Amino acid sequence: MQLTEKQKSEGWCIVKFGDVAQEVKGSTKDPLAEGIDRYIGLEHIDTESLRLARWGSIAEDNPTFTKKFSAGDILFGRRRAYLKKAAIADFDGVCSGDIIVIAPKGKALIPDLLPFIVQSEPFFDWAIKHSAGGLSPRTKFKSLAEFEFPLPPRPRQDEILDAIKKIYDLSNKTYDTYLDSLNFFQRLIDKFINNDRCEAPKEGWKRVMIKSLAEANLLSLTGKTDLNYEFNYIDISSVEYPGNLLSPEKMIFKDAPSRAKRVVKENDALVSTVRPNYRATLFIDADKSTDHIASTGFCVLTPKSGVNGEWLFYSTISKSFTHSMKNLMVGTSFPAVSDDDILVQKIDYPENPEVLNEYLVSIRSAYEITQQLIAKYNKLKTLQKKAFQSYLQSNEEAA
Predict the structure, then answer these.
(1) Which CATH superfamily is domain 205-350 in?
(2) Mean pLDDT, the chain, as a whole number?
């Protein structure tokens, strides 16, 4: 990387990430005693978003995490860096060991610019390139510290920050509106699925166990599968509430992990059996029905004849279903439920298909609004990243 003559004359210089950032290595064995009540796992960090919208309760979930972070620190997902997970902490907490805690260092860089450097494409490309491991590649801060970028003088940094912050603030307002729409979407589901948690279903509806409506894990890959069979692998980390598939990894059978077994078909609903309280559930529509294989960490629900799989999916993200799963989880490091735990859950199902369609139209409409807002938010994020990168053009890029 080289600077232009103009950049040199203005006082720009090439620096390494380790010159302006440092890894924070604090830990605690008893976070609650220190007044820390929240934790962050990779599942709480959204792809390409600097904002933390979710967290876990230490008192409720009893995680084994010991790594501390403070408000203002950057939480960088070192596992599967291609998922591009990095966020700014706005509270003190503990986090997963698969997260690198980063803080500003020195006075060369305005601290508020550091998160935008971490979220830039060149930085993520560097992290991906310098990750090691096959199925779950991880990077280290030692490798990230070697990343180089052009650093402008402080007055220019102030100009860059002012311009970027305007886009960032607008994207945050859009995200707030998205969260409001998501709450409305969730409220509809909770109202419809179990009659707003009333003891009895509405007239014309029946409250039944899921196993009377669907079967679990009907199809799986076997040892006779073609070794060169190529598919999109859906693991738990690639699914986010409310049913969003991030970026399934393309692989061939001979190189796939042993848990890549569940065959999914159109109209199926996938429910994570590991940490089900995170609601990593997914509806398999036509776009996802061809050559997609799911992890055995999912229970794949295939609706019986005449049963609507989309309704099954919405049922599995209702608060009542999530609450039941949370109470049934067993284990500490990877708390999980069984397929049978899922199959015996009760949901309301209408006897008249036309009634079901009316409810689905309302839910779909609410869901579409959430998707429009998140699409707008993503466009603003892309604009923000492009704008920031244009400010940090090296000579090679400008040529």
Answers:
(1) DNA methylase specificity domains (3.90.220.20)
(2) 92
Maximum Cα interatomic distance, the chain, rounded to a whole number of Å: 78
Burial class from Cβ neighbours inside 10 Å (0-12, 13-18, 19+) for residue 24 reads middle
The string of pLDDT tens digits covering residues 207-231 is 999 999 999 999 999 989 999 999 9
What are the domain boundaries of the chain? 5-149, 205-350
Torsion of CA 321, 324, 325, 328, to 10 degrees: -160
- Which DSSP state fits 138? B
Give how far Cα 256 sits from Cα of 82, 136, 237, 251, 252, Å: 18, 12, 16, 6, 6
pTM of the entire predicted model = 0.78
Superfamily holding 5-149: DNA methylase specificity domains (3.90.220.20)
CA–CA gap between residue 26 and residue 98 (Å, rounded):
15
Identity of the amino acid at 60:
E
Strand order, beta sheet including 249-252: 249-252, 230-234, 292-295, 260-263
